[in-house]
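User: quick one
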Amino acid sequence: MIFNSYNFLIFFPVVLFIYFIVPKKIRYIWLLIASYYFYMCWNAKYAILIGISTLITYGCGLALQKLNEVQAVVWKKKAVVAFSLISNLGILVFFKYFDFILGNINTILQRFNMSIIDKPFDIILPVGISFYTFQALTYTIDLYRGEVSAEKNIFRYALFVSYFPQLTAGPIERSKNLLVQFRQMDKIKLFNTERIANGSILMIWGFFMKMVISDRVAILVDTVFNQYYRYSTFALVIGAIGFAIQIYCDFGGYSLMSIGASKIMGFDIIENFNVPYFSRSVGEFWRRWHISLSSWLRDYLYIPLGGSRCSKLKKYRNLTITFLASGIWHGAQWTYVVWGGIHAIYQIVGNITKPFRMKVVDKCKVKTECFSYKIAQVITTFILVDLAWIFFRSQTIGDAFKYIYFMFTRLDCWSFFNESIYLLGLDRREINILFFAILVLCIVDLIKYRFNINLDIFLQKQNLWFRWVVIIGLIITIFIYGIYGPSYDAKEFIYSQF
Amino acid sequence: MKFKKILTYIIFFAFLILALYKTNDILKFKFNGGHRIQTAFNNLPKDSVDILFIGTSHIYYGINPAVFWDQAGIPAFDLATSSQPIANTYHLMEYALKTQKPKVVVVDLYKMVSNGKYFNTGIAVKAAGNIKDLRIKYNSFRDSVNQENIVDTFLGYPLYHSRYQELERKDFIDEDYDLYAKNDFKGQIFSSKMKQNIEFQNLKKIKKPKKINARNKEYLDKMIALANKYNVKLEFMIVPYPTAKDKHQGVYLAIEQYLKEKGIDFNNDLLNIDDIGFDYTKDFADNNHLSYIGKEKYSKYILNRFQSKYKFENRQGDEKYSSWQSNADKSKAFTKKAQMLNEDNIVRYLELSSEFGYDMVLRVNGEAAAASEGLQGLLMQLGVEESDLGKKGILVKEGDAVSFLSKDYIGDSWYKQYGKDILSAVVLENENVIGINETNLEGIETGIDIVLYDSNYNLLIETASFDMDRNWDKRKMKFKEADED
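Assistant: Done. Structure below.
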């Protein structure tokens, strides 16, 4: 089930109610049952996979703990880690990349006029496999590094892997954060009204981002991207910006729902988005976007490869590998790989040209501490990121290149002044609603950027009447302007199929 | 402190529920032929209906409860939905009998000729959208909607939450003067349309019955059982409709035989059209429904039939039934309106408007002011001074008071509010402007433009132009048409 569905609106309150009334010693059992039920609503058979991943990493955890206790030689510990990595990643590669790999092999075979390999069976991508696999692997690696102790209770560990609020689309949690909290679950104060209220506010805001903004702008984005060859610069720019908003609000909204739901139950999970489009560089963007994944790749791939504590060439190599891995993690398509590669290029080129750019800024006596400089950086970063998003969204690399080409060559300035925007799938009223909703989003994100607090904390500091107006206003807005019902397909979260 | 916190949350949730309730109230569907009828039914005093008609649009276009009230003091109600399938008719009957104990329930069986598979969400929503009994509501959707749509149609707001795109005044305010206002609406819907040259097939020649659809028959039996359970007299009928085919009559024959065995009355009025005495140039609005004239005629016909079979108490004067009196008065107002809409002769038009006591704004354009002696005579009859004849201007008739705004008095203006409408007239340098709210009237170049209002009901009757260059042909104005279902 997805968060914005009737099933979840019944499921979550029931889970919560029972969670609050069961004896605290078995709360985790109840959450485990609820999490598996949640996952099996997608496809019951794939619960076996998550179970296998759980058992492997649990077993490896116990083995590592034992090896640590007897101070075994390093290669034995590495072997255990390798086994965990290979088996889990093997499952991930098989289910997610088998068709992709086979397709590419067949493309090569066809080039050499050889007969292609038939697909022996159909494989359906299990929902959230990329997320829970990475989450399970953090446990193994953290154990190896001695950052966390092994979990002896298999049910508690299974909950860590399958915890439903972040199972299907993240954030990817670390064992040293979430598992530790699960171990102290019986110490959580049940009816902390402030915590429950804050969690609810985050969920409501997440629903707003997803249902009012993301699903609405998706209509416009689909209209443009599905037939990009018909459109000129104006529409293509709007489509690209629209997708940047769509993916942020979809993914960011889901993350907030996940964080909010966890908060209600007494758990603090990692923040996943920190106003990414206010970034002043691509590097900063990756510290603000999909934080759980980018930090995972930094800690478990980039730094083990050497990070930036090596020669420049090696550093660029490490960056490239990390971003290509990020790309391929998002999907079994070359467009994602290219998207990742583009970000690697941005980082490398940015790094190489930094001294030159600083020299130019200095020579031209450009003021760097003023608003105009900062806003120019923000806009430039957004443009770079958005150009890369075009590859992420397009069906093929060729489509992406054509999209960008048309965007720069089919100039139609007059479209800014006529009513072309209302021909992109959303009428005047819907565009007005969208603009207003995005304005609200900008205000909330500005508050976050300026004061480094989320909406829930910001509202807690306000007077009661203001809190109520905002919360009731958001709920009513979702009720009226949310994209749901028979007129619309329930827009599934973009990241659920990763 | 804890108590204060709990109280705060209770008040918060109370506000939230109130906001959601009000929002839902505004957004929910308000179809005239369906929702508003059910809303009016829900608003009836308990056990106040003596004759309950249930069925399709044939009922609400064909039978006027106001006739039953006016002529015999019988409180009747049309509980019907456009194209309502038999399954939904059954559930509506089940719902109705929970709060009403009519002397007679009359069910229109037009939909017995359909194939029994109903998965039209829109029709189902109209047929059950305002049923308050959740069990019956759910069953009604279960029996008429695709499985995947049941939850959405039952909840309702997933279907209508996007109605913010089309909200009207009636979504916010239930105006008393609106015919379909819940306080006195009795289910009848008016059509002022008239289709000429209607022809019926000779159905009397059909002698061979056709098989009744099994699913429809199942619900027919359920309705009979329901009537027995509530101990109400049940009848079935067919309201005459010109598109009746031979195969329909075949089904009706089978139904007639079946009901005869059960001792239940079935009046197939398709076979009685000669007795009813329809005028085929006026009595039908279209190929399926009666016009406002045909409705009156047919209602009187079936009233006579009921009166010959049953004894009804005359409820006129009883305070409990006062809404039927106000409905009857409104019904007359709408009948007059329909008459005006169908009157094309300018002389007769102006005579009728005076006879009906309408407020009128009349603008004389172009050469019409001076050209037509006949028009000048008419204007004098309406109260225009002889000295003002021949001038371009605007005549305003408000009740008995008449004034003529002309070029002699540039800047002369007049306005009056009729419920939600503000009608205004002003003489400017280069033009004479008539407007309703913010919209100006675009009239005829040479001729007269007329706006009529019934001030008793704040009802816009018509905005019409009579073209002098085309032999005073009548045509509609270019803006804002009078509301008509």
